[in-house]
Amino acid sequence: MKKTGGSCLAEYRRFVAYVYEYQKEKKGSNCGFVKIEVRGEICRIELHLQCPGLMPESTCSVYGFVRNRGLLDGILLGGCVTGEGKVECILEISAGNMGDSGKSLDEMGGMIFVTEQGGFFGTEWDDQMIRPGNFRVVEKKMIPETQPDLSETERSSEEEIAESKTEAPEQDRDDRTEQAENVQKEETTQQELHSQSVQESDASDLVSEEMLHEHDKPHPSCPLPGTPCDAFSDGELSDCRKISPQDLCHLGRRACMLRNNRFVQYGSYNFGHLLLCRNKCGQMVLGIPGAYDQQERFMANMFGFPYFKESRHIQIPGRKGGYWYRLIDTSDFDKWDGRQ
Length: 340
What we know:
Oligomer: single chain
Number of domains: 2
């Protein structure tokens, strides 16, 4: 990593940090850099990554992180759309209140960049290692000033969420700690599409406003691929089908790209299928079979599947089985003619 401009971060007005790819918890090769400039109260972040094989027009989420008892508390700073094999973007945010978290740039230990396909890239400027398994996305303005016991932090976070009186189903109550960042940004869309669901998480930014407006009408004339499956009984998600990752390519280019998502591959490998449904607005929803626990919730959110819905079809001893799910872009679905 390279910095230019002073002897401690608090004095820096401009510095450059090298970014590395991480695979299987191991630091890989350098793939680019991030340049950070602070002028007055404005922090300008300029990211340049070269990522061979990266699909274009997918989402890359940008996080700053604060170290907390060995964990990396990720603060969503923004996001951008990837190019073919590269990520280039510029963000401008408050240097004293990074991502509306109450934390300043001086308190950050580095940055993490996560792509829609599951790529994990990071840089640190506090001379401590980055362990991807210790990275977690935390709610804005709920990063502790001190470092209390993790269980106490989790309980207090849940209490604050409950006091906010935000409507959400009981089965997803625990999700809300990591899923409150984008409430203001997509409040209208969320109420329309997920009136029975939890608040938007960081990864829910992967569904663009244009895509939501384009698909706000059902497509009753278009059959879904796969095998019919009565996964849920409450009517919130219907017309469900068990599908394979290959079936995603019948639903358009962006949906097809999800075949490379590591969480999608994980669910398909362990349970032998994925789940495709429609919500009440007729929009496509992709479900990944799995269990509801802390570790899997972290993985699901990290790879873009912020919601969980229990299903009697997924039986896991000692844990609640069901599907982690999200909306998917099916712009080209009408072109699919039903042929395998």
